[in-house]
Specification:
The protein is mainly β and about 325 residues long. It folds into two domains: about 150 residues; about 130 residues, no CATH class. Strands 6, 7, 8, 9, 12, 13 and 14 form a seven-stranded antiparallel β-sheet that branches.
Length: about 325
């Protein structure tokens, strides 16, 4: 009879992988930090700000293809030291749910809001033509409630989508309140369109209630409370485009939620959307899965390349952190 000690609860068992994303400060490339000591046990259904729950993902794959080589010396060229070559780490998976952020990450470039058209507009454009005028957002507004004033609220019926941000005023660089949504190289590139920031902003919500002077949103605005001088416009759809020079960049956390055993987390401080897929030279953009013909679900395929940060504890360049939370009373090794 074996007298080996019991190795209890050492096999992680999970149902699905869950994805959480948080913005990177593009001005200084500062990621949102996931500290496994402070944040590791956060409730998956209520992640701490600024982490955003993007739901379950499928076909999760990650790979680290950074080559290693050796320095050889001596008459026989024997290995004397080892070193790593250029870093190459990538992630790929399918979003099970469609939403503004999921689409933006899957397309990788600017993601646009189709603003409600102006009455009698005759200037069609693939990403939306001339929109109706914006409505000024008044002081006292929050990320959950927008004060617009009596009468003005009539432009936003219950159930509609609404984009809230400042007018474009010929600035260059990153635009979008709270979250960088696009990069403007010159005012001429966007035709000095005063609505451009609202065309690309992530500050979008759905109207759940209309009061006499304000609209209440079903979820808080992603970019936070409206900036001073912001306006609101109704959104009729989302559109993204293949191509463009802007790259989405976000911090990401993937959690294999424990069904029994421990929890496994994969934290990528900086993921740049649009990395090449690992599928024989071709990149799949959507995945169709039939479940009751002729009905099919459509999943958004997302691919990323991992960018490095410098770990403050020892100065090492790191692209991903893998953490494991052992089950209670589980074996250590």
């Amino acid at each position: 009879m074996s007298t080996a000690p019991l190795r209890a609860a050492m096999v992680p068992v999970t149902r699905q992988m869950r994805a959480y994303f948080a913005p990177v400060n593009r001005a200084n490339e500062t990621p949102t930090i996931f500290d496994p000591g402070l944040n590791g046990v956060f409730a998956l259904d209520a992640p701490p700000a600024p982490w955003l729950d993007l739901g379950w993902v499928e076909n999760f794959e990650r790979w680290y293809e950074t080559p290693t080589d050796v320095v050889r010396s001596g008459a026989k060229g024997l290995p004397a030291a080892q070193f790593r070559g250029p870093a190459d780490a990538r992630v790929q998976f399918d979003f099970c749910q469609w939403g503004k952020l999921q689409m933006a990450l899957a397309c990788g470039s600017e993601h646009m809001n189709v603003l409600a058209p102006a009455a009698g507009s005759t200037t069609p454009a693939p990403s939306g033509g001339m929109p109706a005028l914006g409505v000024a957002v008044l002081p006292g507004s929050t990320a959950n409630e927008l004060v617009l004033g009596a009468g003005a609220v009539n432009a936003f019926p219950v159930g509609c989508l609404i984009a809230v941000d400042v007018d474009y005023q010929q600035q260059v660089g990153y635009v979008g309140s709270g979250i960088a949504a696009a990069y403007v190289s010159s005012a001429a590139a966007v035709k000095q369109d005063p609505n451009y920031v609202r065309r690309v902003t992530f500050n979008v919500g759905r109207v759940a209630e209309v009061t006499s002077t304000s609209v209440v949103l079903a979820q808080p605005l992603l970019g936070g409370a409206p900036a001073a001088g912001a306006s609101a416009q109704q959104v009729v759809a989302f559109v993204d485009r293949e191509g463009g020079s802007f790259f989405q960049e976000w911090s990401a956390l993937f959690v294999a939620q424990e069904a029994s055993g421990g929890r496994v987390c994969f934290y990528y401080p900086r993921l740049s959307a649009g990395g090449e897929g690992k599928s024989a030279g071709k990149s799949v953009r959507e995945a169709f899965s039939s479940f009751a013909k002729p009905l099919s679900t459509i999943a958004l395929r997302a691919s990323f390349v991992a960018l490095p940060i410098t770990d403050t504890n020892d100065g090492q360049a790191v692209v991903c952190y893998r953490s494991f939370y052992p089950a209670a009373m589980g074996g250590v090794y």
